[in-house]
From TrEMBL, chains A, B:
<dbReference type="InterPro" id="IPR050501">
    <property type="entry name" value="ICDH/IPMDH"/>
</dbReference>
<keyword id="KW-0479">Metal-binding</keyword>
<dbReference type="GO" id="GO:0003862">
    <property type="term" value="F:3-isopropylmalate dehydrogenase activity"/>
</dbReference>
<dbReference type="InterPro" id="IPR023698">
    <property type="entry name" value="LeuB_actb"/>
</dbReference>
<feature type="site" description="Important for catalysis">
    <location>
        <position position="134"/>
    </location>
</feature>
<feature type="binding site">
    <location>
        <begin position="278"/>
        <end position="290"/>
    </location>
    <ligand>
        <name>NAD(+)</name>
    </ligand>
</feature>
<dbReference type="InterPro" id="IPR024084">
    <property type="entry name" value="IsoPropMal-DH-like_dom"/>
</dbReference>
<feature type="binding site">
    <location>
        <position position="218"/>
    </location>
    <ligand>
        <name>Mg(2+)</name>
    </ligand>
</feature>
<feature type="binding site">
    <location>
        <position position="242"/>
    </location>
    <ligand>
        <name>Mg(2+)</name>
    </ligand>
</feature>
<feature type="domain" description="Isopropylmalate dehydrogenase-like">
    <location>
        <begin position="5"/>
        <end position="340"/>
    </location>
</feature>
<dbReference type="Pfam" id="PF00180">
    <property type="entry name" value="Iso_dh"/>
</dbReference>
<comment type="subunit">
    <text>Homodimer.</text>
</comment>
<keyword id="KW-0100">Branched-chain amino acid biosynthesis</keyword>
<dbReference type="InterPro" id="IPR019818">
    <property type="entry name" value="IsoCit/isopropylmalate_DH_CS"/>
</dbReference>
<feature type="binding site">
    <location>
        <position position="218"/>
    </location>
    <ligand>
        <name>substrate</name>
    </ligand>
</feature>
<feature type="binding site">
    <location>
        <position position="246"/>
    </location>
    <ligand>
        <name>Mg(2+)</name>
    </ligand>
</feature>
<comment type="pathway">
    <text>Amino-acid biosynthesis; L-leucine biosynthesis; L-leucine from 3-methyl-2-oxobutanoate: step 3/4.</text>
</comment>
Amino acid sequence: SRSIRLAVIPGDGIGQEVVAQGLKVLSAALPQDVKLETRSYDLGAQRWHATGDTLPDADLESLKDHDAILLGAIGDPSVPSGVLERGLLLKLRFAFDHYVNLRPSKLFPNTPTPLAGRPDIDFVVVREGTEGPYVGNGGSMRTGTPDEVATEVSLNTAHGVERVVRDAYERANARPRKKLTLVHKNNVLVHAGHLWKNIFDRVGQEYPEVTTDYLHVDAATIFFVTQPERFDVIVTDNLFGDILTDLAAAVTGGIGLAASGNINPSGAFPSMFEPVHGSAPDIAGTGKADPTATVLSVALLLSHLGYGDEAARIETAVASDLAERGTAAPRTTDEIGDALAARVSG
Amino acid sequence: SRSIRLAVIPGDGIGQEVVAQGLKVLSAALPQDVKLETRSYDLGAQRWHATGDTLPDADLESLKDHDAILLGAIGDPSVPSGVLERGLLLKLRFAFDHYVNLRPSKLFPNTPTPLAGRPDIDFVVVREGTEGPYVGNGGSMRTGTPDEVATEVSLNTAHGVERVVRDAYERANARPRKKLTLVHKNNVLVHAGHLWKNIFDRVGQEYPEVTTDYLHVDAATIFFVTQPERFDVIVTDNLFGDILTDLAAAVTGGIGLAASGNINPSGAFPSMFEPVHGSAPDIAGTGKADPTATVLSVALLLSHLGYGDEAARIETAVASDLAERGTAAPRTTDEIGDALAARVSG
Ligand SMILES: CC(C)[C@H](C(=O)O)[C@@H](O)C(=O)O
Ligand SMILES: CC(C)[C@H](C(=O)O)[C@@H](O)C(=O)O
């Protein structure tokens, strides 16, 4: 009989609450014969305060021994900025070589958007996850003095760029519109930019059916609000992808709906799925957190593990739930989770 | 009697057309006793094709000998990406130490915006102009091979950050709302981020009346579309400023209205004023280009040179012109320039 060994990192703030709903919907969606084994990891602000650990080697080793990871949210104002991000979140992405950071953006019917005219938005950002300015290759000298110099180095390799670009072509090729847009800033960041553009053009020759396009990142933000329907699949660097996917979330109903997968397509390490939003300590414990982004991340997880039908059922459930929200009274985190689980199993 | 020695770089594409209107309005706005001397520089794609020059030392020297520079737009698809940007536009910003890249964003009445609900937008981005990932400190090895590595280094100095942060506090302090937001990504780019944040906090102690705020760049893009009225003055790094100001332009009527100043506040070198938009070769020569961004850049230029009343007259003229556009038939570049000049002199 089949089984899924799932590592769960609820994390901080609303992380706990939304992950609980994600697991609820996951159980409802899975076929009877699939055994779900979960193991929860206490990682995040609390653990750091108690022990000083962000992600010890023992946890990292034990996490490896799973089919996938579900993460809620990491971060708390009581922890200095960067400690948990670099020491836990990014450490996981790097250690498990999550080079495809997959972030779909879809404006569901009836979902509020700040954009007038409700454009038809349905695109996927393939954000590189292991290189660029995120590598942590920087430093400072004469720190804290009037002569301080601080650097951040963006590292880009042909190996790293080609594999994510190829993944993006595959995804574009599998979609009806078959369109792929590269976003970079190759008129200023000429070295990294040329590497990206050359590989993008070369790999494109293997995908003659995919229409391609290039946009500078600044111009891309304009189209995100004036013409988002022009995008199908976007491939971009780690930092540009970070910025663009928050903007994409904002125009498609907000960060409460944005799902993401940190994927290692080779399967050498478990992939990790998490909502794009943060730990939102201001609303933690109030029942106001929307678990939909986590539930959609569970759909990405299922799809990655080969449960495509179950993933589709979750997406349909979310779409119907959102479509009916307009008229309904606000619900708690738990109520939304229950409603989604009911739709999925019904 | 007073005089202004103005260097003019029309540049490529629509640059020529919009600069002509900018000069028209400038002449209309200036008091009778101010003598305007202009000298035009042939720089851009044409010159590069003819001679291989982007910005020779002789031109750079001669440009220095002016009170200000008005630039139209630079760039053409026939020139490899980066050649004119790095060799001309950015070279000017670096050579003349334009560390304050000033970009106001205002949603004028009656101007179209992609945002539902027409929020009240009136903020200024103070973008650092001489550091960060724009310094051109990068390279590649094993170029073009499967083992290529390409880098881009973001350089940040206490000197460079403090002067632009101080300028931003001054501007915030002079505005009614007195609010300054730092935008960075200090949870990931920890070295540069901490330098920025520490200086931001320290300099802030000298401006007790200014309310301060910090946002990660990804979160800032969300607020640009969901709550842009929360911003008054924003200070940020060169690359984040590039991205945010295009998005700001998009939500306040489009890139056809966005003005900018590349300012050296010390006066050691001439400051340069330019529309945020590019050379738009697709509409060059058709009379479709909107010269308003250039005209508003002329207002920034006048204000920088101490002609505050004249700058205000131009802004009022633009506001009235935009307010009446809704009902009017589309006008040519020239017609808009004429209308603005008439309002300014009337
Ligand atoms: C929390 C932070 C490290 C992270 C990132 O920058 O990638 C977040 O913004 C995201 O997009 O997942
Ligand atoms: C053309 C390019 C070099 C420039 C920049 O990136 O600064 C432009 O986008 C701008 O914003 O003025």
